[in-house]
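Open question from group meeting: does this chain pack into something compact, or does most of it stay loose? Before anyone orders reagents, we agreed to write out a predicted structure and look at it together. Recording both the input and the output here so the notebook holds the full record.
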Amino acid sequence: MSVAIAKADKLLEEKHIYIEKLDNGATAIIKERKDTQAVALQVWFGVGSVFEKDNERGLSHFLEHMLFNGTKYTKPGEIEKEIEKKGGSINAATSYDFTFYHIEIAAPFWEESLQYLYYMTTAPTLSQKMIEKEKPIVLEELNRHLDNPKSALWDTYNKLAYKVSNYKHPVIGYRETIEKFDEPLVKHYFYSYYVPSNTYIVVVGNINKDEVLKKIKETFGTVKGKYYKPPKVPLEPPQKEVREKILRKPQITRAYVAIGWQAPPIKDKDSYTARVLEEIFSGGRTSVLYQKLRETGLVQAIYGGYLSHRGTSQFIFFFVTEPEKVDKVKKELFKIIDNYRKNGIPKELVENAKEKIINSEVFSREEVVHDAEALGYAASVAGDVKYDIEYLDNIKKVTKRKVDNYLKKYFGDNNYTEVQLLPEK
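Structure tokens returned:
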């Protein structure tokens, strides 16, 4: 056993995390916590809109709706009703890189909750009748998306920023694809990608590991399905030009601006540096951007962050200001970036940012939901639970030199994407 594997195994043991790949390929991730009376139960799939084909745009999101429309064992609405009767909550989320279904509930009800998630995610009713029932609901959601000017900003940004990978398409899909969804297509997609080898069952809370594992094997461990492993998402060619567009909408009174640079994938070692840089730029009222742009009245709001993906990611700055101030804000933003790129980031800022990230992570993990989400994301997207358990150690390893090198490597004067959303003239 290598030193790295031994260290990871020791960390898992110290954190009371147990991982087992079942005979059918599904992965069970269990964490016992006696400091709470709650349990978070989540089923993650390594599939999202980035893997959809042209005729499937929006199908991952559509399936999120479909899995709440009854199962082989339950009627539509029955599972939600039973969970809510017990004071729990149930929901789901679809992204570019993953899909997951989750229940949060008091510890005594973990077993039946896991049974319900098993029903939903392995035996949903995917009939033409239920598909036709759900289409108007999803299309109305699409209408709201299209009516939202900020959605137009981000959809435009992604189309400009991505030329190769499917991050250029909105997760919700398009009207022309959603309207054509039918039972054969929906079932083929579900039974191709929502299979044991692509499934991660995460249970965190006041439970007994052996009892939970036994239940997982009795349910998820019995599912059959062909083997599927998500392919690598193609990386974008290095951007060597400015890509920009101005949108104008009548209902807009202020200016909304997004400016971003290509960033490394989540599994890249530079991703930790990007996270520290995010904290430096926009981590609260003491951050650089808040002090330089918000406190001076140049913007009403500003955010700068690392938006991670399996493939090429983005480091984006987003600000809201008066239309006549856009150029001045841009000038100041680029001045701040250029100064740090040429002169480096003060070491004190780097160390303070790392400490804030660590403290924030420790605090958020007090909630079983966040604890479970971090494990599920690490397993299904980063490809290894070690990403989560070694996350804080890797943040600690970020140095001033790494931050300075990141700025020089990724931030240039002529390799960014920009979209402005402005009022009509």
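Observations to bring back to the group:
The two ends are 66 Å apart (CA to CA).
The longest strand covers residues 255-263.
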